[in-house]
Design a protein that fits this description.
2 helices; binds beta-D-galactopyranose; four-stranded antiparallel β-sheet; five-stranded mixed β-sheet; about 5% helix; globular; mainly beta
């Protein structure tokens, strides 16, 4: 009898295993499980499409959330750094964990990737010339005063990425739109010799394969756009100050019909705020702000989320996904993902609406 029972259990386990457990829809704000049934751990992330596969890179948030003394004045809770995760998917819904592609350092406090530091908003791009995958990431000290960007490189999308260095961008270089540093003053002039601050950031690769780093600079008050070298591993020194004094974070950039679109958040740490959007005919601007693209209930808090990336879907016209984080500042590992379809209306303004559940067919309607 026992044997028959065990056999039946075995058969039913096998049958369940054979049934397709594939998800078909995206449920913003719910726990999103990977194909092994574990919650996806890829916060402040970015997407890369390469040879028929999407790769999702993000911050691993695990362990205890705590408020270090150095961040008490502004409430900056944190978890120690584990590294950058990578997930792969063909359908953008079912994700396979590809492991840690850039790992923190446990025993060398002088290393940028030391666990007590900050590693945020990783973005990976592919360099067609060198055939390398290049990862840019916000690297910081626990108190966020280092404000630098780090770069790592790999031969494969799934890593391992080899860390190169961190930099304070554009030391001793004037932006294209400034004639003398003293005409600007503030953090810009203060950091002129040392290099500009770089915190929240993203990388955008244009149709001509030139790549650009967008980053919150000057104590997060002003954004800067800097051109990357041909191998994407450094900056050329060509850069501009944009959105002066507008205090934007969490930048995301995409291109449509020859125009560049930008989304970001305001500057309120882990708390949500109204999203920002902008458009430009040239990457160097002038950038025209288009306001908060969110409509309906929850719009004023970006549906309790903060932008991280905008993904153009391969093979579909005018199909973009707005990817964002719903941070849980008291339990950062339980922060959720808000992915929503992004529309562009007749006046070429961005429109973002809440959906409890949706699938990619929404773009065919
Ligand atoms: C947010 C920022 C995040 C992280 C956080 C720390 O404003 O977008 O990337 O730095 O602050 O509190």
């Amino acid at each position: 009898m026992k044997t028959v029972l065990s056999l039946m259990v075995l058969i039913s386990v096998m049958l369940t295993g054979c049934q397709s457990k594939k998800d078909t829809s995206i449920k913003p704000g719910e726990v999103w499980l990977d194909v092994d049934g574990n919650p996806i751990n890829a916060h402040g992330g970015g997407l890369l499409y390469h040879q028929g596969m999407y790769y999702w890179y993000g911050e691993i948030k695990e362990g205890e959330t705590y408020l270090p003394d150095c961040n008490k004045s502004w409430g900056g809770t944190r978890v120690d750094v584990t590294g950058v995760s990578c997930y792969s998917s063909k359908d953008l819904v079912n994700w396979k964990n590809e492991g840690i592609v850039l790992t923190s350092v446990k025993d060398d406090p002088s290393h940028d990737l030391y666990k007590d530091n900050v590693l945020e908003r990783p973005k990976v791009v592919y360099n067609a010339k060198t055939k390398k995958f290049v990862l840019w990431v916000h690297v910081d000290s626990m108190d966020y005063q280092k404000a630098s960007c780090g770069v790592a490189v790999s031969d494969n999308p799934t890593g391992p990425f080899v860390y190169q260095q961190s930099i304070r961008p554009n030391a001793n270089i004037l932006p294209l739109n400034v004639e003398h540093q003293d005409s600007i003053g503030g953090a810009f002039a203060r950091d002129f010799e040392k290099g500009q601050m770089a915190r929240d950031m993203t990388v955008f690769v244009d149709d001509d394969n030139k790549a650009y780093l967008f980053y919150s600079s000057e104590e997060n008050k002003t954004h800067q756009i800097a051109e990357l070298s041909d191998d994407y591993l450094s900056l050329t020194g060509k850069y501009k100050r944009v959105f002066e004094g507008r205090s934007m974070e969490a930048p995301a950039v995409f291109k449509r019909n020859g125009k560049y679109y930008f989304m970001a958040s305001g500057c309120t740490a882990w708390e949500p705020n109204p999203a920002r959007s902008a458009v430009a005919e040239s990457i160097w601007g002038p950038w025209k702000e288009l306001g908060n693209p969110c409509v309906g209930e929850g719009a004023e808090k970006t549906f309790i989320s903060q932008s991280t990336y905008i993904l153009p879907i391969q093979g579909k016209k005018d199909a973009y996904i707005f990817m964002a984080d719903r941070w849980n500042k008291d339990d950062l590992p339980d922060s959720r993902y808000i992915w929503l379809p992004l529309r562009i209306d007749e006046e070429e303004k961005l429109v973002l609406q809440w959906h409890d559940e949706w699938d990619l067919a929404i773009f065919d309607k």
